[in-house]
């Protein structure tokens, strides 16, 4: 048997040993030559030499794991390198100058807004909260209601003093609260951006809490409401009252009569508007919101059933005379519709007969002038909103369309291209035709112009027509800006008519609390006259108060005793706040389209009645 010889020759196994020694020697030499003539592969070498000695690898014991020393070195090296790179990058970032993106400084309208709201803090009556932030004011008139034995309303503490005196007139106060609520409903984001949303809501609630005390707010039917607290007898009689006495509200110690009324449609409807609009502001507080709605319903029912003007035959006609109650019917019903969604209020607000009595078709020199007395134009703007965004159609379309057209016409009359209203040489529009105290009307117009501009923008309308001419919505905003800028100091006198704004503003404001020093001295009625007649600036700054304003020649007399120039009012400042918030901040932040419609159900227009049958 033969096998393969690994050395290259044949290998005989178990062959007979017949060869001679010489033959074997010769064969071995052949084997040696064959072996030397070939290279050995690795396997063959291992057979001859045995297993080769391999180089030992080195390891590192890390306790929980054993790794190769080479891998360990590479890992540690990478970590160190990464740390060095990170440290170098951090060093560069720390040493290179940074370009910080700060929020832009507030604009003038925002600054003025914050100050204008402070005026309401200074006008508060009753037990003041700790956060009132007017150092020279304190709690006052804590006996209101109790000091008059003839009234059934014994707790009339709270609310706001109307102007430079200490009388609480519910008619202009309610209008001021409605204006503030309207501005919050339309521009909550702007109030939030100015960090004033909580503040303005607190101001509104202080007023509505008081209004709820001035009638039986828990009843469904009432027969009286409070018209005012305090008396302003201007006859110069010896009895102390809120006009005869010039004292700080905190020092009032004389009786304050309560005036009730039993037929006062204008007052009750305006109070209803104030509570209804505030119920939308506080809609997230369901209990309080429903309380306000219930009170508004009760007041409006009283207004409709007990017809009459609140100022007829009493002293209110001297200070806040109401010329009609029909405009309050349209105004109050509009707000109640938005607050409740009840279409009966919308039907009333769009009833042609009521609208006619309110003066919608009369025209006249004061047409379109929105104020504490005449709310028609405000109601027209408010209901134009409904047509622009919900378009309820029949049976409301006829009057809503009329209101929309009339709103457009009045907006045209505000523009300098038209001559419905004169302007002073300094550019102030004379909405009250040169009569005193013009600014309260100007700020209301500025608010409505800006608001209507934002309505059109939200409805994707670039502008509106004045006759054959088309005007951009920017023109309305420019009108509002020029008027508010005039009030803030861009006028011939370079004077800001808002106290505390700018460096040059009235220093002799007609205001008892601001003019009498807080020096722990209690002055009697006549004792305070020396402060009224003093030529020195007020010792206390009534921050945010918008005074009555200049005359038709842009003139202004900073004299404390001349209230036609230097007295501020709640209604005037409410319009100022509304105009300022509308113009403040980023122009792209427009109105809140939907909040006012929260209670309004989906609109399904009723089809018009079919035509009469044809007769031959």
From TrEMBL:
Residue numbers annotated as active site: 510, 558, 567
Alphabetized UniProt keyword annotations: Carbohydrate metabolism, Cellulose degradation, Glycosidase, Hydrolase, Membrane, Polysaccharide degradation, Transmembrane, Transmembrane helix
Enzyme class: hydrolase
EC identifiers of the protein: 3.2.1.4
All copies of domain Glycoside hydrolase family, residue ranges: 109-580
InterPro entries the record matches: 6-hairpin_glycosidase_sf, 6hp_glycosidase-like_sf, Glyco_hydro_9, Glyco_hydro_9_Asp/Glu_AS, Glyco_hydro_9_His_AS
GO molecular function: cellulase activity
Catalytic activity as recorded in UniProt: Endohydrolysis of (1->4)-beta-D-glucosidic linkages in cellulose, lichenin and cereal beta-D-glucans
Organism superkingdom: Eukaryota
The keyword Membrane appears for this protein: yes
Parts forming coiled coils: none
Transmembrane regions: 71-93
PROSITE patterns: GH9_2 (PS00592), GH9_3 (PS00698)
GO biological process, one term: cellulose catabolic process
Pfam family name, one: Glyco_hydro_9
Family: Belongs to the glycosyl hydrolase 9 (cellulase E) family.
Protein's recorded name: Endoglucanase
Species the sequence originates in: Solanum pinnatisectum
Lineage: Eukaryota, Viridiplantae, Streptophyta, Embryophyta, Tracheophyta
